[in-house]
Protein 1
Amino acid sequence: MTFTARALVIRALLTLMLLVASLFLLAYRINPTYPVDDAYISFRYAANWAAGYGPVFNPGEKVEGYSNFLWTALLALFAEAGVTPPLGARLLAIANLGLLFWFLLSASVRWSIASKSAALTIGTTGCLILSLSPHTVRNVLSGLEAPMAAALLLMGVLSLAHERHWSSPFLFLLLALTRPEGVLIALGASCVALVLATRGEIVGGMSRRERALREAGRWVMVFLIPYTIWFGWRWWYYDSALPNALQAKSGLPHEQALQQGIDYVVGFITPYWPLAILGIVGTVVSLARHELAGTLAAIFLVMLAGGNLVMGAADPYVHFSRYIYSALPLLVLLAISGAQKLCGWEAERHSSRRTTVLLLVVSLVLIQIWIVAAAAWLPWERSTRAAQRFPPQRFISGFDRIVSQDRSPHLDPAWRTMLPHHHLAAWLLEHADPSDQLATSEVGVAPYYTDLPVLDLFGLTDAHIASLAGPPGSDADADYVFGEAPRFITSTVDSSCLCGGTPGEARLRTDWRLRSKYDVVNVFPYGHLRMLLFERRSEPLFFVHYDFVALFHYERVLVVGDDDREQWAPTLAQEHAGAGNIASHWTEAERHCLLRLLDDGGQLADGRFPPFVADAIRAWLRNWQPLLYHHPLEGDQRLAIRYTDVSIPPGAFLEFGLITSPEHWSPEHGDGVRYEIIIREDTGPAAVAFSEYIDAKNDLDDRGWQRRAIDLAHWSGRTVDVEFVTTPGPAGDAANDFGGWGGPKIVIASDSSAEQRTPCGAAASAIH
């Protein structure tokens, strides 16, 4: 066997040994929370593609809700061959991890200034650092494309360094098809290739200009033309220049996005600062000696870090560092280079190279221990360790899970609070029909396993919601959602405050249509959160005839004494009396009662809640109301919000809430607010339909939402003007009287509604 063949065999054996060791680590670390929820989005696209529907999330709807085309296409090929996307993703990730080991070992030998054995020793230690990194473990198990993007980038950089002119553009083409930002990295790579082609005056009988033209021709043929064809196809197919997922994740203010991006990059690099020091040594020496490979690795490492200053703000898996993980193999590569440079320097000063190599290996091992220890303190790590179990069969069950087809949801009882999406999927498989639509912000696990039509409340797979203005998830467009009439809607709340979820979900909770048309039918523990599942009722509990907040058809009138002295334009009224959400303020007794009901209901055998629990949830939802902000004025001036030409149907009630802002319950100024509702007709005097004084500062019972309803039977069938008036308390002090009207609306109870009583002891009518 020749020396070259023997070296290849040794590298292959080392790669295999590293891969086997990594498999043991993966088997130990894998748990039912893998793959992560976002990976199932690509899985559903791949499954639908293999089933003949094309690369779509919902059959018939061409929306690009993924950002990893090549990864999804490969998973579709696996699905076509009978391998489920979850298993295909693990196999692909493990294969790409093997490629990372092979090319890191090859580079360490090729760059070595010491003996080949020393180079392999240092290279193997560097590969161990990569394989044992928590970021590697998470990304390999996540089901997402990060390991493949990392392998393609490493191979592309080494191909550039070794001046393999045809393979470089092809590898960067594959990278650009794997990640959207890959096209920018490929653009940088093409510029580097053109610069390298112009080194020297005449090489091989070709001038600089001729070499540059030939290199540009290669990039045009191998990268630009195929990428342009693919880009044109996806623009034609999805009718969009960029993936819908990118649009859904954009919208953060620039300063906030940049700050989050900086935190993202710094958080990723912090555990690896010892590697970074070695990498700096390798980079400096490479620059001093005009060594190309180390210089290129450093250039692309900086490119990745710079790009992630902006991209990192949109990464939902911060502790996985999905977008910047491709930088880790480059960092390890530079650390290997730096270790070899130090090894050569020490060998020149001391005759014992073996001792030098041993010291470097021990140093790298200590670096790895530091990395694992530093990463172990991450919040995500602590939360998963809390659910870890260590049975003797841990490795066997781990290997079984790695090669599992994952054809059904994970329902491991030991991980129940971390598997809400899987339990939701299992419940829907039992209770939902195939045509039932699910509206949810979590469009991974449940949509994949159930195949239900999905309305994505976050917007990743819904072009309309993605196009809404504002930060990601800030709006779900209630009219659009309820207009679609999904059978099921999910909403996530924090157990500590019974609030939270995405802003879009919170907007849906403030909408009367959720309370009227939907009942809660299950709740799924979600760590310290709870995921509520609502199901559409066969008949609404009540109908809204007139929604005062939503319509904005009113005048804002300044009243002095009994006369209207000045009228403000409706446009100004909209600026000063906009609709905003004010948090739910339940007493502790009410909150704990509701939590107990939810917990008890979740233990029912058939998985459905009894009616009184749905009624308690409806009462809780009524605490989430759009606020018609209305601050009283000083003295005898009254600020009235007047709605004109309001028709009153038979059987109507005017329901509303009263609130003063919690942060102003205790200051020394202010003496409460008097709320009045005045109804005017064309003939006859104005009638005070409602009047109440709220002093939340001094009366504990006046704190939080005060829910009220008045009977409008006296004005049935008439058209009237409705005025909402606020005035300060008896002392006339309007300071700190921040408050308003909670979701005022004219409602009509449905024929099927009936008076019920919640177990909390509070009367809850159908319209309440």
Protein 2
Amino acid sequence: MWAACRQDFAHRWADAVTGTSYVPLGTDELVAHLLGLTHRLVESLLAPEFDPEPARAVGSDLVAAHFTGTETLSRTVVLLGERLPQMLDGWLPDAATRVTRLTGALAGGYAGALKERTLDEQEAIRNAMLAARRDVERERIVSEARFRAVFTEAAIGIAISDLRGNILEVNPALMRMFRYSAEEFRRRNVREFVHPEDAASIWLAYEQVMSGELDHYHTEKRFFRADGELIWTHLTSSLVRDADGTPSFQVALMEDVTEQKRLQARVEHQSFHDPLTRLPNRALFADHLARVFGEAGPYHRIGLCFLDLDGFKDVNDRLGHDMGDELLVAVAARLARCCGPRQLVARMGGDEFVILVEGSSGPDEVVGLAEDIQGVLRPPVRVGDHELTVTASIGIVERPVTEASAAELMQAADMTLYWAKADGRNRYAVFDPSRNAREMDRLTLSAAMPGAVDRDEFVVEYQPLVALTDGALRGVEALVRWRHPTFGLLGPDRFIGLAEETGVIVPLGRWVLARSCEQARRWRDAFGTDAPFVSVNLAPRQLYEKGLVADVTAILAGTGLDPSSLQLELTERAVMGDEAGPRAALTELHDMGVRIAIDDFGTGYSNLSYLRRLPVTGLKLDGSFADGLRRSEETDTTDERIVATLVTLAHALDLTVTAEGIETAAQVERLRALRCDAGQGWFFAPASAPERIEAMLRAAVPLGTVG
């Protein structure tokens, strides 16, 4: 398939350039030569690490093969832009971008090689002229005839002027280039061909040639033709001296490179503009932003609105990418209407746009722009037969340029856009350094967490579960801590959510379970039947792991811990689903003798009747219930009645009840009176190292009396 595609492309290429240049090749030889160049271009496009530079050599090879006509490069570029993306459709997601950069490199290589070839031709003409002036008399006629032939037939323009700049003679190529007759040229002086934007160095070099300080110089210069049209040329100006070395006249050699300049401008525009919306693209925006930072003064301020369309993927999925493209074009047009002269709007890719505000007056100006954007997007957009409602989430950053780099500004805008989307979409968020610091800490922790388990940075502490009837230590809850090398000792509230998001909760939970069972077995060996059972939290994601039962079984077998010494805690939401897998796993664990407790009960469904169908052995009441029982004289009768009802119903289901968050003796008294079985909280002890638990076991003092 690839071979046929490339062969077809080579034939199309040959058809396109035939007649634009004189190439000493037959049709089959021409196709074969262009097929070789096609192979090089396609291989460059398909390379894993794309590099457009090989195309520069292909451009040079075209010139070397005499493809030097004025239409050759233009037709080649059009063919590349139209056919190569079609050939590569489905093979490369960024085929259009690669082809654009490849075309630019080819054009650059072609232009460079053509310039070198022209300079060589110019030098040959100059040498022929000098030889004609130096030849001895017997060869003068032959040399002058040779020069006249070169002068007349040359493809490049040639003008001869005296040392005052008066034009004496021009060749046919120059007359065609400028559309002046020979007589019109002879009435003009070289200095009349000044372009308003000529660099001063061009005319300084010209004066130095005319005065004899320089023999020649090369430059790229613009001219106006007789009809006022602008042309670009490669210009070589040379001084011709007499036999004794005295300056005699000046020769200018010019090649018309206007078409190459236009092509280069078109390629550059394509490289820096989004082909769909015609807005500046990410590359142009980055260059512009870097320039702003490079040129701005110390008091200069800058603002960004970084926006992302809400639900754009749904438009593509429901209506198709063509409709999505139409929507993007309409949005781009509305955003452009929003912007003033100090504002640049660019498409960053996909459905992301950014608006840069140079020299902003403060955050209020950029917030006002964000509100204008929301307003201009509010009217429905007509796309085909559909009217679509468009909303956007916008991240806003505004600050002095001295407070950040361009990269830091974009990072802040990206983060703030994420906040806007996370906060509910169809809104804007303003950059907050303190929130950003928290988010960066969060990202740092998230990145470090997978390796932290392997580096053994986690530790387990244990909080007593105390019988309210006699203050005996019946069990302990295992609570994991992270000894982070930078942030110090972190509680589970800092990282458990991240562990669940990243999936690290599964290996971390397995590690906590293994360490806790090992510790429980050591206590069992040391204290016998007085040893506490260990209660380990099980995250919802762990419950849905197919290997959960096998992991628990292996850990119990490896540590030699009796299943009755292990309790697994789960939240209500984790166990109230209808999925058969988690329920079957809990049933199997319960049948092994492992205790199953519902943690933070009362914050979720609180469906006691549903618990009858689950293999649950105990409930742990959320700490909010104990808050209303903090002082006996201010007891919240509503909380008291709720706790009494929950305890009664739980006991009716043969479940034990543990109250969390106990901090006062009054709470212990009320909960004991309500027949709550156990308690947990700072009143008894905080989470502590295993050695502290062992000291409590050795002291054998009722914990309710030593708070």
Protein 3
Amino acid sequence: MARSHHFTGWPAVEGYCDHRSFCPGERVNVRCSGRASSMSAVVSRIGAVVEQVWARTNIKVSDTPVPDDAWRSGCDWPATVTVNTERDWPPGLYLITLQADRDDSEKGTAHAFFVLRAKLRLPDTPLLVLATNTWNAYNEWGGRCLYSGADAVSFRRPLERGYLTRATDDDGFDGRIATVGHHDPNHTHLQDYQRRRNVPLWTSSAGWFNWERRFVTWAEQAGFELDFATDLDLHRSSDLLDSRRLLLTVGHSEYWSWAMRDHVDSFIRSGGNWAIFSGNTCFWQVRINHNDVMICHRGAARRNDPVSDSDEAHLLTAMWSDPRIGRPENETIGVSFSRGGYHRVGEAVPRGAGGYTVHRPDHWAFEGTELRYGDLLGSSSCTVGYEVDGCVFETVNGLPIPTGEDGTPTDFEILASAPARLVSINDTVCEAPAELWADLTPPGDLESTAQVLYGDTSPQSLARVAHGHCTMGTFSNGGTVFNAASADWAYGLEGDPLVRKVTANVLLRLGADR
């Protein structure tokens, strides 16, 4: 069964690219469907400057049916327009604006994207891998996502409005969760914005617009050149990181495959460096099949994932910290969301400072900042926000030292921290903001994490994970990993000179010759 392309609130034309990344000179097929008989398409590179590179008008388009399970199977729409990329186009994210002819309204416009990788791999150019797995996990186009009943989601479908670009209100508000937490504890501003702009709920939790776009804008303004790739590139290309010095992860890179971790672990062991300006990083394991379908059973994995009781149980699509997998993300990134949580979201540290307390101001990451022990970093821009990662530590002579019991390397040096909390939802308590949660049915993050790690939700087990932290730090395993451990780090680049200085220190230090 399939249904016509007539969904309430959908643009008159929509589309997606047959692949997500290309090399300069390759052809990009854009697969479209719509109620209009013709449309225009404009391609622009999005960076510190928005540069239009290609345009066509009067493109014929047909109303191709949408499969009932499009979220899982994809759309299989026809190639409606082909973009011939030029060999001199620089690497970056390219936004495709699709506009139905004779329709100037917002509902007449939709967006697709593709990524261009560098023509030549230059070792001194950092590689930014866009968190496209996470975009796909939250994208509810076609009826479902991993947060509304799906256990598999296709890359071969459009992204909902708001993941790639978004209208900004007169006061500058664009749906940022941390800003809402800072100015509007009840999150009514976000809810009102999403209703007025027809922006889906999950676009505040994922997408290019929120974090990577801001980072790229700052980096290019600051004179840093970047190369680009997607999660699928990292998953499928064992040589993607060869000869590179620095890998970058920004924003909210939540969903990782076994192969992605293998490739990054090998890169670090061989002397490569990694700068993580992300939170909730590498929390869920996914499997990706040859049809570009990403599988993740999340909290139901032990019950529903076919590999649960097989000899491939290590590929369980559950929390990486699940003992059945045996590979906590701490081993790769230094920290885990299971020891962090939320900051300034709902009742999770609702009046927190939004910044880090500095513990080790003499570290090279803080060079030139004049920060001192106990100072706050990033609070003016709520740089610590939304989802954050931490580790188990003890305090020795007033300084935090990892215990290593959660998989965090014992040489992980905690530079700064902030309090965080996993949200509790049980029969008597709901700490989650209803405006931001699609399902308030128990268990909450606190209860489910305790159940996975310790096998029960007793008061003793809950207490072991209830009081988390955002722990910025570094460790070495051949190369060096720096982890800011906060999803909202990129917001500090817009308004805090000290956050910009720390970021530049990290890029210059870790991007230098091995």
